[in-house]
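Onboarding guide, step 5: your first structure request.
Type a short instruction followed by the sequence, for example:

Predict the 3D structure of this protein.
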Amino acid sequence: MSQQPRVLLTGGAGYIGSHTAVALIEAGYAPVLVDDFSNSSPAVLKRLEQLTGQPVVCERGDVQDRPWVEGLLRRHACQATIHLAGFKAVGESVAQPLKYYRNNVGGLISVMQAMQAVDCRAIVFSSSATVYGDPASVPIDETFACAPESPYAHSKLVCEQMLAAQAKAQADWRVGVLRYFNPVGAHPSGQIGEDPGGVPNNLMPYIAQVAVGQREKLQVFGNDYPTPDGTGVRDYLHVTDLALGHVAAVKRLLQCPGSFTVNLGTGAGTSVLGVLRAFERASGRSVPFEFVPRRAGDVAQYFADASLAASVLGWRASHGIEAMCRDAWHWQQRNPLGYAGEVAHELRGSGEKSRLGSFSDAI
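The system replies with structure tokens like these:
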């Protein structure tokens, strides 16, 4: 029997989850992936095995099925959980708030109840810098007031509050809350990366799709902010650095009692035009864009003070915006249709149809 510490990784086939799975394996942990594939592809599993050279354990199901999660934790003897499973589109949460509270809050309740039943008391929770709302100043540190402005952000804060209440009620619980900013990029191999369904909600994959010719041009929302070039400034974080932050958090929880809440970011901001120009340098291609009016709710600057993560976890981001764009472009070049291209290729060879739709649907 393997002596590697086993970690339940919910949402393990998703963008952040897949990179975290690689980082866990490389650090000597044995992740047990859980995913319902509502926002991910089973095709990632084969790629994870190719990247790590190890079989990947993945169970398909819904984390809101508490008895099922409890059975997983028992069967695999997991010592900790990293909870990434959750919906994450801010705009959709405004239109469908109940969907977000049910999945994000209800899913965490189910996981925590299952953990309680099997005496697994260490959890790393995927939170978000959106819990801060519109900050009075930057950089943002963990003492800033939380004022979430969307149901998505509020669902994350409610989850944080539940975890804090549980840790206060039962001192043997160990909780690590990671508030991260803007994950971007991809694994440097180009094997795994961000594969948004439909129109991307985030800047980097949209720029990548324009660069590869899938979309005509980028819309830049606002050019009159009080920033050096007039466009919004955000703290972009390479997804591999983010994955290592999760590993550092699990290590801390398994070795030390107590709980913590930390920001994960680079501590510096890059403007929209700065990202666009960096991507042009990385890809060698021009990225057409147009300025359009500001979006409601957007703020001028938003970046982290990540010094607490350095002191508590010994973690610092090591990649700059050039590396983020380089790796995102490598992924996009190799996978212009994301994982759907691989699924469609396999289906054409077998003559079968996928639950994701036909090849033409994927395009």
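Each response can be followed by summary notes, for example: The chain is about 45% helix and 15% strand.
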